[in-house]
Specification:
With 135 residues, the chain is of the alpha+beta class. It has helices spanning 41-63, 101-111, 115-122; strands at 3-7, 15-19, 22-26, 68-78, 88-97. α1 (41-63) packs antiparallel against α2 (101-111) and α1 crosses α3 (115-122).
């Protein structure tokens, strides 16, 4: 999948993000010089973890016929030491449904194994950047 961004017309900093058939406006807060027209890149990073955990648990529950009706997921960000190399995300999942203790334990274990969690904590990400002048 390709991700494409382009400057949003008439906006200070906002970008239109396109991923397949989906579009989203990205921005930063007013305090950061933007207009708060959409989530920030940090918001998306955090949301990737939250959604991955919820989707992974729901996928596993469906696969194992565990009666999960829905999942509420919250992320708390502590970026107070980000410049020192520490970025803390605290996740909280509330799983609804008629679950046995064993099923609940299985889902709790699965929540720790979502692919984005692994990417954020145990994979080296290599990034290349090419910048060119418009013609």
């Amino acid at each position: 999948m390709n991700i494409h961004l382009e400057s949003k017309a008439q906006a200070l900093l906002a970008q239109t993000l396109s991923m397949g058939d989906h579009q989203l406006t990205m921005d930063v807060s007013v305090a950061e010089g933007g207009e708060d027209l959409g989530p920030s890149p940090h918001d998306l990073y955090d949301a990737a973890l939250a959604s991955c955990k919820a989707l992974t648990v729901m996928w596993f529950a469906r696969k194992k016929n565990i009666a999960v009706t829905h999942i509420d997921t919250r992320i708390e960000r502590d970026d107070s030491e980000e410049r020192q190399g520490i970025y803390r995300l605290s996740t909280h999942l509330i799983i609804h449904g008629a679950l046995s203790d064993e099923e609940f334990h299985q889902l709790s274990v699965v929540a720790e194994k979502c692919p984005v969690h692994k990417l954020m904590t145990s994979v080296t990400t290599e990034i290349t950047t090419k910048v060119e002048r418009a013609k």
